[in-house]
Amino acid sequence: MRAFLAALVRLATGVRLLPEAPHGNGPAIFFANHASHMDFVVVWAALPNALRDLTSPAAAEDYWGATKLRRRIACELFRAVLIPRRDVNRSNHPVERLGTALEAGRSVILFPEGTRSLDGETSEFKSGLYHLARRYPDIPLIPVHLENLSRILPKGSRLPVPLIAQARFLAPMRLEPEEPKPVFLQRARSALEEMDPH
Fold first, then answer.
1. With helix as H, strand as E and coil as C, how does the chain read?
2. Which of 58, 62, 153, 161 could covalently link to 36 via disulfide, CB atoms 3.0 to 4.6 Å apart?
């Protein structure tokens, strides 16, 4: 079912299947710009089958957990990690939830902006990516630049518009020793902005 859905997403969006994992073996932290509810589905669908089966997208709990159907799609079909955006505390902190997946040997897909962009520009990154990189320094960070997703399913839209999208998987990066949080977050953001045609 998951392989069929991934193929359907690639057919509908034009996103290409990666021939192999972009980082070698083991888990990775994929991070991408965020413009559409389809973003995590597209990154997930572009991964090779074996890697996709071991990858959990981060999904906004207030949206994907709002109804039983959405929760079932996110958690059972995509094996997503639901991330709270309100009332965050130690017991439900996004870094803890994503860390649980990484420690289980799964890769994760996340969107450091925290919310979808309205104008296509990459917003400032929140600190979660930095804290994951610091906690798991041996896990590679893979920037993924998404193109046209905001036009295929723009914010507020329920039906996709047929356009060709792209998911560009860039070179792995890591947190440098003693690298300050603001410097690292700007460097990670710049990796995506360098691919931005705007």
1. CHHHHHHHHHHHHCCCCCCCCCCCCCCCEEEECCCCCCHHHHHHHHCCHHHHCCEEEEEEHHHHCCCHHHHHHHHHHCCCEEECCCCCCHHHCHHHHHHHHHHCCCEEEECCCCCCCCCCCCCCCCCHHHHHHHHCCCCCEEEEEEECHHHHCCCCCCCCCCCCCEEEECCCECCCCCCCHHHHHHHHHHHHHCCCCC
2. 153
